[in-house]
Amino acid sequence: MKRYLITGCAGFIGSNFVHYMLKKYEDILLVNLDKLTYAGNLENIREWLDDKRHVFVQGDICDKELVTRLFSEYDFDVVINFAAESHVDRSIRNPEIFVQSNVLGTVNLLQCAKEAWYDQGTWKTGKKYLQVSTDEVYGALGKEGFFMETTPLDPHSPYSSSKASADLFVKAFHDTYGMPVNITRCSNNYGPYQFPEKLIPLMINNVRHHKALPVYGDGMQIRDWLYVEDHCKAIDMVANDGKDGEVYNVGGHNERPNIFIVKTIIEQLHDRLQDDGISEELITHVEDRLGHDRRYGIDPEKIRRDLGWYPETPFEKGIVLTIDWYLEHEEWMKHVTSGEYQTYYEKMYRVV
Ligand code: NAD
Ligand code: DAU
User: How far is the CA of 292 from the centre of ligand 2 (A)?
Assistant: First the structure.
């Protein structure tokens, strides 16, 4: 039985990963370490809280004593680090916590894994550390071209700088000590359980309630959208079969301008709810994000060629599944948008 330490898996992608893995594997142990920040929510993994294959531990990846204790208790084979502060806008307002969790937290996990797995110059066999990273570490693209694994790192925001720093520490542990590592760099995810500070769930929630739809700048920035389950599949494949030391880009060749995404959500919800209060008049162009990256686009050829990964969910299907999920989980949305979210929203969108 493989034993995994998975971190940050009460958040969006991590909780989808828990669902994916526990539906796929009978003989597995997932120890899920999450601090439960504003972005982590036990409701996201409620159905697995009593499952003997899943142990939830509330705690910080920066806590050396706790992580060391978990390693000695569970003798992990694989560490997958999802835990991070993940929102670019928040990093622009408050970068320090991004350094703390994303950089120092990653270094702590690497160091604890090394202490557990490395003895007198030799690594125990069958071990793997996987860092869940982002295409944002590559910076921004012009009209042409794609990010390759060989594209130089050129992060712009405090968030992407913290993720790039973490990636460099992962690389350092491989290059210096020979640690068996992989890094995945994925494009924008969407799907169930995404916190509504991010474009797609924020727009779905605002459209439903006839609230202004805050589009940054001209709305012609391009993101490469991937349904979250396809990302989970890629992480599972890399954790099992990734070649030590390699980086794998993950993306679906699904580039869309933000304004297209917003108009699609308006159209879908208008038709689904038969509600004439839902129209493009809700779109409000607001001040642009500082240092806003214009375009991201991933070349996923390496993971396709080497591991046989491909995205299964086309955007047209994924967006319908996603809208359906949010319509069916109104209580979840109410719950996560109460409290801290209101304060954040008022500060962030006071211009609207
Ligand atoms: P999220 O913000 O939804 O969830 C992050 C989770 O990490 C939360 O459950 C939070 O409680 C936990 N966490 C934060 N700091 C912690 C700490 N110090 N110790 C323990 N737990 C902590 O993020 P997400 O969108 O699910 O992203 C997960 C990972 O994937 C991140 O590393 C992110 O950089 C990366 N990523 C995200 C996307 C995307 O589109 N969302 C794309 C590519 C890569
Ligand atoms: O590319 C991968 C990254 O995608 C991940 O590493 C990040 O964790 C994740 O948050 C996401 O970053 P983005 O900044 O691209 O995602 P966000 O949903 O915040 O914004 C998507 C685009 O929509 C971006 O161009 C900004 C724009 N936007 C966003 C919000 C929240 C708006 O126009 N209005 C908004 O209200």
Answer: 10
